[in-house]
Write a structure and sequence with these properties.
Length: about 270
Amino acid sequence: MTEQECGTGRKALERFPDLSFRLQAVAELVTGGYRMADIGTDHAYVPICLVKAGRIPGAIAADVNKGPLLRAAEHIKANRLENQIETRLSDGFSALKPGEVQSAVLAGMGGGLMIRILKEGAGVTEYLEECILQPQSEVEKVRAFLLEEGFLFLEENMVLDDGKYYPMMKVKPPCRRKGEGKSKENPLERAQKQTWTEVELRYGKILLERQNPVLHEFLEREHCIKQQILSQLEKKDSGRIRERRKEVEMELECTEKGLSYYAVQRDYTGN
């Protein structure tokens, strides 16, 4: 497994050796010093590793199901972290109070569920400094939702773990609290108010602009697969086949637009 595959390189491997490459990359996005909530915690792997590494002072491990929460509590106890990591039975943010944590991780769940949790938990998320999101599906819809709701994209990453590609993002939730003075808009916020293109929504604007190497590998793989599908479809002909061919051609065009971001090599040395 290469550094590209873990997404964050040796730093992540050394800091969080007990986590999968996917969860290492998620943990790396959490800002040091923040108290965090792991929503849908399952085994509480991320908060345990973050606390053990001294990255965060404490955490709330939350899950909607009792079974996973009991497993999380067992792992927390086995690591003697009961005083720093609390478990809560919670549907999304429902059992959290505004201001209890500064960071929240939502990883390993479907995009539709993630959107629902963020919508219903707006009263809590508006007090957060960041959300670390790793949707397992409907990533394009998640990005579109975040932009529509006024979330600010701070960082994106993509990793290859056990043959699967996992995009993830760090975003800052919008603050809609009454009486709060509106902070001066920064250039990043102004840029993100502009409409993202279909390609940027599908693959991630930050990933494309920074020429993320794992995304590049993913795009090349997708391009090859789409070309092979088209080659097979050209041997057949029917109304349904023609419709399918058109769909694949559009997907191929989107992939090629993504690859065009990598056509120009950028100089990161400042020269």
